[in-house]
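Proteins fold reproducibly. Look at a sample protein:
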Amino acid sequence: MTTKTSELLAAAEPRTIAVVQGISDDQLDLPTPCCDYSVRDLLNHLFDVVVNFQALARQQEVDWSAKTDHLTEGWRERFAAETVRLVEAWSDPAALEGVSSGMGLPQETLGDMALIDLTVHGWDLARATGQRVEVEPTVLAAGHGFMDRMGDTGQRMGAFGEPVPTASEATELDRLLGRTGRNPAWTP
């Protein structure tokens, strides 16, 4: 069974997995567009996102304060497996019902949060490590819809930086990145 959320995550999943699998060990200390995060830090954060949003899909509480070093033997394969599990968790229609007890947001919004993290952090990691990532138009449209609904709140809570203006001829991906506080022209 699938849901709209799982279909969107399934569209983003292989692209982000490919970026993660393309990161070499000698790139782990490089800077990223998330100014407080090295590649290593951002990978660990994205691992936490992928694992914790599986639990949130099952309407379980999660501990965001736990900081685990996920980059041990076989981390690329584990990331891929956990990301597939993320898609599977959001495939259950029950994952989209009600309000999250742990975060106080509609479950559908949490699914959108997982999608925006997987997409934008996939771009962050690609940009930091000299890779390219393409994003499906349906994923971009969902990301813009999420930012329309939650962008201001996310910015007030520190999840997003100040919006970065983009040119009128900017791509939809660049516009989404700008809305999340990223400079689409960022280079290491």
Notes: The chain has a mean pLDDT of 95. The domain at 4-133 is CATH 1.20.120.450 (Four Helix Bundle (Hemerythrin (Met), subunit A)). The CA atoms of residues 75 and 133 lie 20 Å apart.
